[in-house]
Amino acid sequence: MVEIEDIHAAAERLRPFVVRTPLIESPELDRITGGRVLLKAENLQQTGSFKIRGAYNLLSQLGPDQVKKGAVAYSSGNHAQAVAAAGTKLGIATTIVMPEDSPRIKIENTRRLGGTTVLYDRYTEDREEIAMKIAAKSGAVLVPPYNHEHIIAGQGTVGLEVVEQCGELKTVPDQFLVSCSGGGLTAGCAIALTSQCGSRVYPVEPEEFDDTRRSIISGRMETNDPDARTICDALMSAPPGEKTFAINRKLVTDVLTVSDEEVKDAIRFAFRHLKLVIEPGGAVSLAAILAGKLALGDCVSVAVLSGGNIDPALFGSIQEGS
After folding, report:
1. How far apart are CA 250 and CA 97, in angstroms?
2. Helix, strand, or coil here: 68?
3. What pTM does this model have?
4. Taking a C-beta distance cutoff of 8 angstroms, is the pair 276, 304 a contact?
5. What residues are paired with 115 via a beta bridge?
6. Cα distance between the two ends of the chain
7. CA distances to 115, 122, 211, 213, 260 from 224, in Å
8. pLDDT for 129-182, tens place per residue?
9. How far apart are CA 174 and CA 296, in angstroms?
C-alpha cells in the first residue's frame, strides 16, 4: 500500500522538475453549479498532463545498471510523452508501445521528446505483452502507466498540491473529482485527500469504459466491451490495476460516468469561459460537474483537468459543435 509519506517523498523528488499547476476558480462555473468549484489545471503541466509526475518519480529512482539498460512503457499517449520526457531529462533511453490510432500529436510529441515508438492495433494486440517482450530482450525496466507504487505516489502529488493550495485559499475541499482509467491518479489523490482533509473522492469514467465503477460494485476487476468506443482515448485502459483497485475500492466514495456529448460540452466550456484547451479524457471531471452528476451546492468541489493533448482537428470540430 502506498502511504502519504510516499507521496510527500515523491513531491520532493518532483519539485525541481514539474510545474505546480494552478487551482483555477470560475465565477461562471460557480453560478451554474450553485457551489464553489476549483479546477486543478494539469493540462498546463509539462508534456500536457499529470503523467509526468508518476513517470519521473519512478525513473528517478532507478539504479545505475537499470539506467544503462533503458526503459519500456505502453501508453495511449500521455504516459508515453511523460516517460520520453523524464527519460531524456534523466539520460535514460525509452521505448514506448502506442496504439496506431493514438492522436497524431501524441505520437509526434513522444518522438520529439526523445522516445522511440512502437505502434500496435489496440483492438487486436496486447500492448503489455508487446512491451514485456521488448523489455525481456533488452533488459530494460518496464514503466507501467498506473499499476506501480512509484507511479501512484507520483500521481498523488496532484492531490497533495490541491490540499496545499486550498489551505492557501483558507478552504477545504469537500469533494474531489478525478478522471479515471487504470486508476493511478485516482489512487494517489485518494490517499492524499482522504488522509489530509477527509475529502470525498469521485473518479469519473466514460460511460462505455466504466470498468472501475463495475469493479467496485462486483468486488473483482472488470473489463470493458472490446467493441466499445469513446473520444476519451486516454481513458480506455482496462481492467484497473491490482494495486490501484486495492486502494480505490477502499477510499473512493462513488464512481461517476459521462457521455461523449457531455465531454464535448466540457471542452467547449473550458475554451470559451476559461480559455483552456483540454483533451477529452482530461475533461470528464468538468463534464460530470456541468452535467449535474453530483450535488455541488453549499460545498467546495475540486475537479482535475488531467490533460490537454487533443488532436487539433478534433478540437476544431468540437468547438464548431460537431
Report:
1. 31
2. helix
3. 0.95
4. no
5. 94
6. 44
7. 29, 13, 6, 11, 16
8. 999 999 999 999 999 999 999 999 999 999 999 999 999 999 999 999 999 999
9. 10
